[in-house]
Amino acid sequence: MTAANEARTILERLGAGGPIWSSDGLEVRSPIDGSTAGRLAETADLEPVVARAVEAFHAWRRVPAPRRGELVRLFGDELRAAKDDLARLVTLEAGKIVSEGLGEVQEMIDVCDFAVGLSRQLYGLTLPSERPGHHMRETWQPLGPVLVISAFNFPVAVWAWNACLALVCGDPVIWKPSEKTPLTALATQAVFQRALARFGDAPEGLSQVVVGGRDAGEALAADPRIPLVSATGSTRMGRAVAQTVAGRLGRSLLELGGNNAMIVAPSADLEMAVRAVAFSAVGTCGQRCTSLRRLLVHESVADALVARLKAAYESLPIGDPREDGVLVGPLIDAAAAEAFEASLARAAEQGGEVVTGGGRLDRDGIYIRPAIVRMPAQTEVVMHETFAPILYVLTWSDFDQAVQMQNAVPQGLSSCVFTDSVREAEQFLSAWGSDCGIANVNIGPSGAEIGGAFGGEKDTGGGRESGSDAWKAYMRRQTQTVNFSRDLPLAQGVRFEV
Amino acid sequence: MTAANEARTILERLGAGGPIWSSDGLEVRSPIDGSTAGRLAETADLEPVVARAVEAFHAWRRVPAPRRGELVRLFGDELRAAKDDLARLVTLEAGKIVSEGLGEVQEMIDVCDFAVGLSRQLYGLTLPSERPGHHMRETWQPLGPVLVISAFNFPVAVWAWNACLALVCGDPVIWKPSEKTPLTALATQAVFQRALARFGDAPEGLSQVVVGGRDAGEALAADPRIPLVSATGSTRMGRAVAQTVAGRLGRSLLELGGNNAMIVAPSADLEMAVRAVAFSAVGTCGQRCTSLRRLLVHESVADALVARLKAAYESLPIGDPREDGVLVGPLIDAAAAEAFEASLARAAEQGGEVVTGGGRLDRDGIYIRPAIVRMPAQTEVVMHETFAPILYVLTWSDFDQAVQMQNAVPQGLSSCVFTDSVREAEQFLSAWGSDCGIANVNIGPSGAEIGGAFGGEKDTGGGRESGSDAWKAYMRRQTQTVNFSRDLPLAQGVRFEV
Amino acid sequence: MTAANEARTILERLGAGGPIWSSDGLEVRSPIDGSTAGRLAETADLEPVVARAVEAFHAWRRVPAPRRGELVRLFGDELRAAKDDLARLVTLEAGKIVSEGLGEVQEMIDVCDFAVGLSRQLYGLTLPSERPGHHMRETWQPLGPVLVISAFNFPVAVWAWNACLALVCGDPVIWKPSEKTPLTALATQAVFQRALARFGDAPEGLSQVVVGGRDAGEALAADPRIPLVSATGSTRMGRAVAQTVAGRLGRSLLELGGNNAMIVAPSADLEMAVRAVAFSAVGTCGQRCTSLRRLLVHESVADALVARLKAAYESLPIGDPREDGVLVGPLIDAAAAEAFEASLARAAEQGGEVVTGGGRLDRDGIYIRPAIVRMPAQTEVVMHETFAPILYVLTWSDFDQAVQMQNAVPQGLSSCVFTDSVREAEQFLSAWGSDCGIANVNIGPSGAEIGGAFGGEKDTGGGRESGSDAWKAYMRRQTQTVNFSRDLPLAQGVRFEV
Amino acid sequence: MTAANEARTILERLGAGGPIWSSDGLEVRSPIDGSTAGRLAETADLEPVVARAVEAFHAWRRVPAPRRGELVRLFGDELRAAKDDLARLVTLEAGKIVSEGLGEVQEMIDVCDFAVGLSRQLYGLTLPSERPGHHMRETWQPLGPVLVISAFNFPVAVWAWNACLALVCGDPVIWKPSEKTPLTALATQAVFQRALARFGDAPEGLSQVVVGGRDAGEALAADPRIPLVSATGSTRMGRAVAQTVAGRLGRSLLELGGNNAMIVAPSADLEMAVRAVAFSAVGTCGQRCTSLRRLLVHESVADALVARLKAAYESLPIGDPREDGVLVGPLIDAAAAEAFEASLARAAEQGGEVVTGGGRLDRDGIYIRPAIVRMPAQTEVVMHETFAPILYVLTWSDFDQAVQMQNAVPQGLSSCVFTDSVREAEQFLSAWGSDCGIANVNIGPSGAEIGGAFGGEKDTGGGRESGSDAWKAYMRRQTQTVNFSRDLPLAQGVRFEV
């Protein structure tokens, strides 16, 4: 059975089969072997989708938040039950290795648990008024329908970050998944339906999937009935969404490109650094927004580290991600491989020396050899995010310089330092340290926990999802003052007596 | 002495005189008597302004926040010392009555005190990691130069909301004040200079004023070195700023138009309601973003309330805002009076009946009679914000209907209900109540305290300033994870062993 | 089968039977029919119990909090599975009606969900240092073994409030349940063992039950290895615990007596008030710490309300709490009935007039008729908490007076007002309103949600459990400052140069 | 002029002279030269003091918190104006060097600024109810009169930590200062009176000083009208206060003894360590609760460090703390010197070897030579806090062992590590690291900033003062639920239909 057919079979087992297929819709393909599973009908009319979401909102915002949390708890239970199937679909459709597929579903489960806890929190404030006989409070209210535009590389987890929070916050969700991974989206909806069935009395239209391409995303982003658009993808896409949404004074939550670096200091534990580099530069075949792309090594340890990395890279098992032991699966499509090769060529032109990797494997699906390239400087190609496993290595002699190099790119998602020096680690985490949304010490840039806020600065778009108070993006804040006295004093002592 | 010349004299006394005047710059005018004080040189070159701000940022972000707070504390002290002068300038340049001018400076002082307290808080989080031997924290870091675009009607307070927080957060400020009120801006800078002199070692360029028109604002808003643009003004202006800033993936904080309503229920204290209406509909000559524009009265009390309001309106002292007892000063300029008259005419066409007011006074400066208009429905003119004292009165019979009427306009800034019913008050404050950023009970829509977050939803732009955690807009959030173990576990239990 | 034997059977089904019985231990009795199920062996030696808890602490504090949360999540799952059995045991041993027994287990489940959410929060702070090159943070660390002393009337929920938070916070729990309800405690432990088995690698001794009387509680409370003692029960007991623990500078969390009032204002919805009174004065046969004991009614509605209450009381189905429709089950024991009768007699001596109720039913078990007594003033008997269903009714004419009456008792747990007036409701919730830890509007005093902090002031002991930041009681706070500069500045600018 | 007479003169200049002196009261003495300034009348009758505080409370709790903050702001202003005088009194009465006296008053000023900020915060929560048509909030209410018992070594700052927060929180303060430092207390009150005069309409009795000894403190601690007793001093005193207050179910906030250690690791910056040791072991002549008492040095650097410390100690300028350059002033009294000598003798018996110091200087006042003693183990004398400058030096070979040594004493106030290793630093700050309330990296144990919570665990008493959410100790928490629906649902789905 081809990978695509296996995906189709799983989808049917999850109860999302049949009428979704069509003769002229979106082609469903597996990067594992290039097989196709047929075409999916695209959502023809977006108007009823948005209308249903608005109607659902009017009912759902009246449901007490702890009760909304119960739906998310049930969803978490159903995800646990469907974990293997859903993870397998992630592998089949996005090409991730088994452990990563399972990890992605685990992340959905984790965020369910977190959101359930939030459902009795969503804390606003009470605060003292300057006026006698008044009290003030700040309350967070449901916002309205949320549009989630997700990318192929985290086909389900990023939606779950958004959807679980949105649902607990009182907001219905419209999901426009990547054209490259619609099946995982439909499978997730099927799992969600199971939770809905157990829950009982939720309104129709709490969660909807729109199958379609860029046009569908753009049309939805322009709809004034959708107060929040949460979009993950390229900086180019994000910029377009941001402008569209700004033009109607809506709210955007953007998770765009990264160009993530690791600084390796002389005191670093090199053994740990090697392992961290391997996972973060090569995991998901270099197709994470948090993938490691730049390795900034102190000159005293650069040769040793590169040598160890070269050996590690050359022993990496590349192949079908379903197979035991494989660590590097396919790129998502041929365009990705072309970008990989083009960047390697540009790197060479710009003075780079390929240490290892490059080139495609001769088999079905798009398999390439992850590359390490030593660069003389952060040239144009280094400043640019190529969504493939190329690791640029550069050296530094002074820690201030290393931090400057880290910050010199347009993107600002993730960053890390390997060091055992308190001074270096804390400088890296200081106001004049890393300018990224994520900064790690002795951990690679990739693989965040759901308890922290996830997202980045600059061209990464500024959005934050998942933990901390990221939920506030899904609500509107209301400052409330109640006068229970018989007087009408004005703030700041203003007097105005008619 | 003309009002404009009085303003010029005060400015000189504050130490901001001399070389700022020019033969062909921005004309400085007082709405009180239409007098002019000369022309101000416009800022010729914006490039060095931004460059200075960036340089100041690099120094200022390293200054400990409590020390930054000390500068703001000194500024508060200097504002207390200059309160009368600065308030007088507000009166002279914006036309506010004396008590409102003083209230506006008091608001600057209040926000200084608040910001000083924040300077030892700016709380991020520590949180537990799911990985053994790891700890996580979230730290808020300085963001960079902040552009503040302010409007004529709060010529200094809104800047202070932004600037005091920005300075404590580690960000230099560039201020583009309204073309109609440049002198208060220059005077505020002179007061700020006094604080700087006492402080001692602050970098150059922490606070800069740009004298200029819309072009200057647009050029600055487009500059990628300015991560945050905080703009107050019309929805039209805000939409343009939002798109410009979104196009470079910057951050906007928008405070745009309001169309604020008061719901009056049968149990309302009518005496209090009358006083609240008078202040909020007529104060600042109806030129607050939070001015009351729509009065939604239960049919059983509408006639009584309107009768009392008519009497109150007809006794309002209109005139030179410097004079004791005057409650209604001038409109800002002739265009405002034209808009006032045009809206009254449109209201009449749309079925409105003028209860009182309308028409200009025959004297220097632009003085009009605040108007009350009973409307049969929320017609086009009611949905639109006219920046002048027109109060549209409408009736309702059912509380749900009243809330729907309140929410039916495009803007979402401020709202209020007068009632003594717990059920009505709390419904108004619930998830299915007012959709505004501010919701008051037994208080008019106008006159917020600085401790709460200020701002609104929908066409109001979504920004929040001043209290609560509004300071977070002036910082960037960093999620930090430190591994102090000898292992390298991955989140979500992912395994990847090279 | 007697009620006690039914309890024994259920316990065995849950896997906690056999060797726990003994010929000379604690007698296990059901208040439903006075039947006994045998005697339970008392915990002979407390030393190994504490030692095991300390050892467990050293291991458990190193387990990441989100992983600790997973144990609590599994416990919640097991509680869902065992809900009916456990609820039945609550009925059999404490005499609650079926719905209340189920509600109590539901409360355990709710707090599990809440604690799971907390396991990724337990938020401390990051904050700015006044010294350059320093950062500050506040971290909450595990505290150590927690002793939970629980009362018969919430035989399992209160333990769960404590235990679920303690476990997530990193603390093992030692449970000394009431001598009157040991079986529910043992059953709960059996359910917890199931969760432990699924969890896998938790240390021994995370949760232990001590079967015994007051001596066991006192000995444990004096043990310096137990940093926190959380005790629920009478004010007399609490005072003793507080002194013992204070003598070793430990921490107490006390939930002691209440003497809870409802104020009924003229605008109150009397239909709702009647229902609220009935549930909160009569539910659990008046044996909740939050039971309504004082009804403070405006003189204009007192007669009408009392008449409706009299009718409601006289229709109350009293009897075996296992039976459908029964609302009033037995008192816990004969001593409780004696206290009930003695208080009624004292009330009569002090001018009270019994409106309805009083007297025992002639059947096995201790069943009495809930009483309503009109009192001329808050006499001695009214100031005192009798743990039985006596409702004292008093009248007032002025709202200030009503609030004073509410606050005039030594206890400070729960309170409420029925009114539709914003002014009255908000005054009641103001700094000069109710002095209790819980204050409700249009809700009886009884039946809190787990999301809020639960507990009271004055003789109620000051502790807070369950929601909000009650978890902080189970942790220790550490203020951490890291100097990553090369200088050693002192705070407050102190200079000390050797 | 003797030191005591200089103090008397300053006190008069501050306006607190005259009638306070008496022939048979508390003797006022300066440790600088042993001179006496006369006797102070002790507070004869405590009853009216408490009654006044209660009355003040009833008025003050109704004053809006931001307005209460204005009083504290004015107090900060007056402290700035009186800084030199008040600091000089600290020097004269407590014997601190000039810089430390100034630092102590600066700390008062800092906490004023912080408290002013809090006056618009005092944040409670709004949170979602599980019941439809309900809202929940948590509000922090004023608590009542607060008793502050302060110690001689921080004669004014610790009171200010308490009083500024208490006043902003709505609580009057009764101050029982140390018998050894009454003049600074009276001077502080005089400064506070200036603020009150400017403020205008505060109630009488907001802040009162009780002159007296231990009896006065005990009597006040037992008074049930004082809900909070905040006491700083010895563990013995604290234990007594804790039991007294617990017996009436009041609240204690205890800051008791410390036995603070510094761990020095091989990677430590020894130059910084030497300076940190000198300040923290010798500053305030070793009479801070955070003074360094135990130096735990890695065996590889112990000899080098001790040698440098020996040299530093032997060059310490000892003498009149008013003199420029002096770093070591007098002990507070002869009893302190005796304890110093007795501990040195016991240390010798227990195997200690005096490296330097010991012995008294031959001059008026009690001047001793700070001592360093190498100990073979943490013997009995090491486990005990001697309030004098004795530094015990011990060595370790393994970092886990160092942490265990740090934690092995009964006290738990402050702790620190000098290291540049991330692993060591973070382990020290972890759940299995330092067990103290304060844990520093590359900073001595002494000299906290006011933004963090100050206090410690175990025999240190568990209280927290100053920053973070320490203000909550001065308020009572109220969980508020408002039902604005027409239904009366019960939590946890309980059903109870009469």
Automatic annotation (TrEMBL), chains A, B, C, D:
Entry EC no(s): 1.2.1.3
Signal peptide per UniProt: none
Keyword 4Fe-4S found: no
PROSITE patterns: ALDEHYDE_DEHYDR_GLU
Span of domain Aldehyde dehydrogenase: 26-479
One Pfam family it belongs to: Aldedh
CDD domains given in the database record: ALDH_F7_AASADH
Keyword annotations: NAD, Oxidoreductase
Record-annotated active site: 255
SUPFAM superfamilies: ALDH-like
A GO MF term: aldehyde dehydrogenase (NAD+) activity
Family classification: Belongs to the aldehyde dehydrogenase family.
Subunit-structure text: Homotetramer.
Name the UniProt record assigns to this protein: aldehyde dehydrogenase (NAD(+))
Organism expressing this protein natively: Brevundimonas viscosa
Lineage of origin: Bacteria, Pseudomonadati, Pseudomonadota, Alphaproteobacteria, Caulobacterales
